[in-house]
What does this fold into?
Amino acid sequence: MFKFNTTNKKQQANTKLVKRIAEEDKFATLQRLKTSTSGLTQRDAEIRLAQQGPNEVVTNQRNSKIQSLIKSFFTPFSVVLIILAIISFLANYFLEPVGEKDFSTSIILAIMVCIAAVVRFVQDLKTSDAVEDLMELVSVTTNVKRNRKNVELPTQDIVVGDIINLAAGDIIPADMRLLRSKDLFCSSASLNGESQPIEKIANKKPSATQINNYLEYPNILYEGTTIVSGSGMGVVFATGDNTVFGKLARTLAKTKVKQTSFDIGIRKISTLLLLMTLIIAPLVFLINGSIKGDWSNALVFAIAIAVGLTPEMLPVIISSNLVRGSLELSKHGTIVKKMNSIQNFGSADILCTDKTGTLTQDKVVLERHFNLALEEKKKVLELAYLNSYYQTGMKDLIDKAIIEAAAGEIDTNDIQYRYTKIDEIPFDFTRRRMSVVVADAENEHLLLTKGAAEEMLACSDRVEIDGKIMPLTQQWQEKIRHEIKQMNEDGFRVVLLGYKKNPAPVGEFGPEDEKELILIGFLAFLDPPKESAKEVLNNLRKDGIKVKILTGDNEAVTRAVCLQVGLNIETVYEGSDFENKSFDEMKKMVEECDIFVKVSPEIKAKIINVLKSNDHTVAYLGDGINDAAAMRVADVSVSVDDAVDVAKKTADIILLRKDLRILEKGVRIGRQVFGNSMKYIKITLSSNFGNMLSILLASLFLPFLPMLPLQIVVLDLLYGVSCLSIPFDTMNPNYLEVPRKWHVKKLPKFMLTFGPVSSLFDILTFGFLFYYLCPKLVGHSYAAASVSEKISFMAIFCTGWFVESLWTQETVISVLRDPRFPFLKQHATLPVIIATFGVAIIGTIIPFTPLAKIMNFGFVPLEYLFFVALMLILYIGLASLVKKWYMKREKYLI
It folds into this structure.
């Protein structure tokens, strides 16, 4: 059995073998691979599959668990903590006397890094498993000949020797040698970056100039490339890891991550936090060192401050949020391929889509098959059937409707018996028509063409009425256009049918033969709107999402459908309207219009780029090869499970059903994921800022450190652990009603507004502890106390602020999660309440356990907790008032 290996040395041998296959006769290739044009038997294929393994490139081989675990230690924030731990260790080792060295801060920092790394490691494994489990719900199949029959099989079941049928929209599942081709154009952008499709020809061998560049071999197709138009058949000569360029293609497909606005925002906030650390930590070091004179202590304290400003749980919480969101989406028929697209899903304020299958029932029915005198004629249906039945390209809804209608009205078996297929000219989006050539019993050749009205009129010069052939005069053209317009206005999509007898010789048919045709009739199709379309569009409008229709159909049909579902049809632009327009003109056009007709794939992509330049977040829902370009440039691309391969590969999100109701639900889940991520970022930012402000003020006025470095580190650890519950929280229903976008500029205002509120209560606590509780318990004011009493004074003070600060930090999550009054008008979910208040209770208990000695906590009476409770009540009241004031000036809280 012919097999490839993947080492570099043997990779060169693979290239040599590809060269031999390209140069040899195709029958020699079939013999080499021990197969035939009839395909493999199922038993033979199963044997080969067992020998070769599944047709999968193990790119995305996950890193080993050890590698993943090591990688988890090196997030930006974990690296900061590691550096701080090393500095703390060195400071203690070199600056402290032998009997006073204390490495507890370094140890706790190490523990924090380990906790964050392990949680992230577990979360990443869950993420990877979740994506793989969900992707198993998405079918990617290939049309293969097995047991002499064409069947759809999963791409991983393809083996060497399989005969593959190719059509527009297919992604090549393995490396193959072409056996037959017809106007087959292939895009190799994933391999060589070339955007222009190149023609592949089965019977053409590499020329002398091509022989040293196997990408240019005209009769070889590589895994990962896309069929743009035409049809063909090939034999597989390499699968999985043994493909020459398959590994590269799959790596690009699976590892290319679209940068979302949220990703950019996370980077910006990370930079902001690191800058804050670089400014505040040295400032605290200088203030404490100069005022208190203990530079080594000041250094360790500054390190602790830096730790407090480092949101080490940020990557974990974002990841956890995404996994939870993807699992929730899967329950509603939505599969997330690229996790970081969920936030963009929630941010989208524009949805671009074709009308077919989205607004309509995705089931086209052939209602009329008229001749040009508007009489129903079987001959028109027979010729249309031959055209649709014998074409081997991508059979769309129109072809299926013709075949279905013919099966009920005419003897299709007799037609197949009387006519033999000779050749075909596949459809493309430039010509907007397709042709087949058939021969009858007398060997008379007939070229049958169907296509869009203007494109058919352009290549026709005669008409047939009741068997009579007449010139296609200007009068006839106007009459045909008038009839089509009338049918379009009634909601019918109309295709013209034409023919030509005895066209060019066999083997030479191409688009240039589509001329001097005889028009014979109209094919009128109906694609009725979905009953739910109007309601869903209204719901999307209420959710702040504007739907824009980008279709290749004509204006009249599109207007008729859009009118029925309640879309604005006042302004309609055609693709040609964008020609020779300036960018500023196009920016205005895309805003004032919601319906774009007769648009090519390139114009679809251009419209989306212009919308994005207008500061919109654009989602695109597509399922055909003509949607791939638009899907690549959209902020978030959505496809369906029965879409063509290239659409599913390009999509960030896949719907298991083409239903806008599923998409509407998915958008709301995306907004919840976004909201919970923003909740952690905003609350943590304001909380950290408040703590650091309190510490700066305390450093200026207190004769000792307000909290020991180890205590600050433990406080930060406890708060970080409680925040792991935030992905399990819900959002205010009002929050889900509008698109949510990342606005970094709003973060400083939020931080400067709510951070000082907690600082105010910290200062009140400082005053209570310094002037009342500590002197009462020690027996003297700090100034009058002895050395041992001062140590006790400081320990009690640190303990008191530790408890109050922990409760304030945990309470702020419930206060700022929603604009309404906490606990009475709104409250967090049970997991969040248990986590936050559970951690606060644990932190409060620590000073009363043996851990108190290790952490240098002093004794505080239980009565102090009443003071903390009073501070919390006052804090909740003041924070709620500030929140109300803030909401008068800002539209959103989170």
Q: What stands out?
A: The chain has four domains: 8-60+143-255, 66-128+258-326+667-889, 334-360+530-656, 365-526. The longest helix spans residues 660-701. The longest strand covers residues 175-187. The two ends are 62 Å apart (CA to CA).
